[in-house]
Specification:
The chain has about 350 residues and is an alpha+beta fold. The chain is built from 7 helices and 10 strands. The protein is elongated, with a radius of gyration of 33 Å.
Length: about 350
């Protein structure tokens, strides 16, 4: 399903140059004669065709989500919802930019009403289903009644939009230019949107194992600056330094976005050395992504061994955390050596 939605914008690339050239040509046409008006109508249809293809792809993607949504993974489901919302809004913007000049009659207004209705309905559906599942962070959600009401309301908007498109096509065809717009209908399967189907659909989304929020953080790698070399007994050996930087790659291995992830690095010294103050860094990590963090350096002493504790924790309530200990030993500086020079006695011959 994610691959299908990704194809929504495919027609845009092939037609971009044609659209730009056609817009330039149409812009030169004034509100004058009948032949000019016929040219405007036909140019309007040519320019609208790739936008209609984009809108049809968005409609197919949305209907597929209503059929297959409960079986999708959470990340793919949210990505597909966002893609439908974004491409539908883009189609509405592109269509609104086609005029002036206006084609004959009220064709542009009716087609514009169809595109605007689809934009509003797609946004309503996406927002409702995201809220139903607790949003991208997986917090809250579960209001099936509210989601069902929104889907039924969106169905009404889409039905009106489909009717507006039919009226637009007829108006343009009856005009002197007899221009033909491609057909476009989002409610190819009205039963999916009916009250009898919407209730079970939202219930299936809430109970779907693949859509259940699963938080998860992982520490993919921990490295130091200055770099260390492997030592004995699992202890990494550092050159003499008083400032130890710890670089950490934190990954969101769950299916929800983690906001306010706090990385804390502490060091427990061996012997009687004083423990340095902990250092911290904070970030957001989207589901499936990773972030490299470099908190301020730890203050360490040469000649001392440390157990470094690295912990990443999501905001309270998210339930995701990861930790990793590493052992390091800071080499003491080399001893200072002094060089003594001697002068050989001068021998004089007699």
């Amino acid at each position: 399903m994610g691959r299908g939605v990704a194809r929504v914008a495919a027609p845009l690339v092939a037609t971009a140059v044609v659209v730009v050239l056609a817009v330039g040509a149409v812009a030169q046409i004034g509100p004058a004669s009948g032949p000019d008006k016929r040219t405007v109508d036909r140019s309007f249809a040519v320019l609208a065709a790739p936008i209609v293809a984009q809108s049809n792809a968005s409609g197919s993607a949305l209907n597929a989500l209503l059929n297959d949504g409960p079986s999708l993974g959470r990340t793919a489901f949210f990505s597909d919802l966002d893609s439908v919302r974004t491409t539908t809004a883009e189609a509405d913007r592109r269509f609104a930019a086609l005029t002036p000049p206006q084609p004959q009659g009220d064709a542009a207004a009716r087609c514009g009403a169809a595109m605007d209705g689809r934009r509003r309905a797609a946004a309503q559906v996406a927002n409702a289903l995201e809220s139903l599942l607790g949003g991208r962070r997986g917090l809250g959600g579960g209001d099936e009644a509210a989601a069902a009401r929104t889907l039924i309301a969106a169905h009404t908007v889409l039905a009106s939009a489909d009717e507006s498109w039919v009226a637009c096509r007829r108006a343009l065809l009856r005009a002197p230019g007899s221009a033909r717009l491609p057909a476009s209908a989002w409610l190819s399967d009205p039963g999916v949107w009916g009250a009898a189907s919407v209730g079970p659909f939202v219930a299936a989304l809430v109970s779907s194992p693949s859509l259940t929020a699963v938080p998860g953080l992982a520490l993919l790698s921990v490295s130091t600056a200055p770099p260390s070399v492997p030592g004995t007994s699992g202890v990494s050996v550092l050159p003499p330094t008083t400032a130890l930087h710890v670089l950490v790659v934190v990954a969101d291995v769950g299916n929800v976005d983690e906001e306010g992830v706090t990385l804390v690095v502490t060091a427990v010294p061996g012997g009687s050395a004083r423990a340095p103050a902990p250092v911290r860094a904070r970030t957001d990590v989207a589901a499936g992504d990773s972030v490299t963090l470099s908190p301020p350096p730890l203050s360490v002493r040469p000649g001392t061994s440390y157990v470094i504790h690295v912990t990443a924790t999501a905001e309270p309530g998210a339930g995701a955390s990861a930790s990793l200990p590493i052992r390091v030993s800071v080499v003491p500086p080399p001893p200072t050596t002094t060089t003594t020079s001697t002068t050989s006695p001068t021998v004089h011959s007699g």
